[in-house]
Write a structure and sequence with these properties.
The chain has 160 residues and is α+β, with helices and mostly antiparallel strands. Helix content is 28%, strand content 26%. Helix 3 (125-141) links the parallel strand 8 and strand 9 (146-151).
Length: 160
């Protein structure tokens, strides 16, 4: 049986969700998706699916940091875990680390901050600005003491 030809997206499905700027924290936290979606004061930021290279870097960092986490009683998680920076502001770092796995900052649906956030820069100019400028300021403002920027194009890791 041949499937029908796909000619247009199902735009009407968007009417099932709040308008941009009108999302609540509860609606954001209830959203289930296989895409990275970050939340900023009612606005949703949907990011591109990760590349093979990005996944390889994340896997490497998870293995390396997991060894440290086991030694000190910490915990490390890959992308997809939401981190609340402040009210109505959530990010999903590529890798996130807490030095104490029993920390009360660790919630079921999100973490309330972190000890380390790691972001991997994508190729787009928009993503480069978000990771190199915007998130750098946000993580500092949120009191996250360490932020690593992995830039595959430049073959660098910047530790802040």
């Amino acid at each position: 049986m041949q499937s029908p030809e796909i000619t247009t997206p199902v735009w009407r499905i968007a009417t099932l969700f709040p308008d941009q700027g009108a999302w609540s924290e509860q609606e954001y936290l209830a959203l289930e998706t296989n895409r990275r979606v970050e939340f900023d004061s009612g606005f949703m930021e949907v990011h591109d699916a990760p590349t093979d290279q990005r996944q390889a870097i994340i896997s490497f960092l998870i293995v390396a940091l997991n060894a440290l986490a086991q030694q000190i009683g910490g915990i490390v998680r890959p992308a997809g875990l939401r981190v609340r920076l402040w009210e109505r502001k959530y990010r999903e770092p590529d890798v996130v680390f807490l030095g104490n796995r029993s920390s009360d900052r660790r919630q079921a649906k999100y973490w309330d901050g972190a000890d380390l956030a790691i972001e991997i820069v994508s190729e787009s100019l928009e993503d480069r600005k978000r990771v190199l400028v915007t998130k750098r300021l946000e993580y500092a403002q949120a009191g996250i003491p360490e932020y690593w920027i992995v830039d595959p194009a430049q073959e660098t890791v910047t530790v802040l």
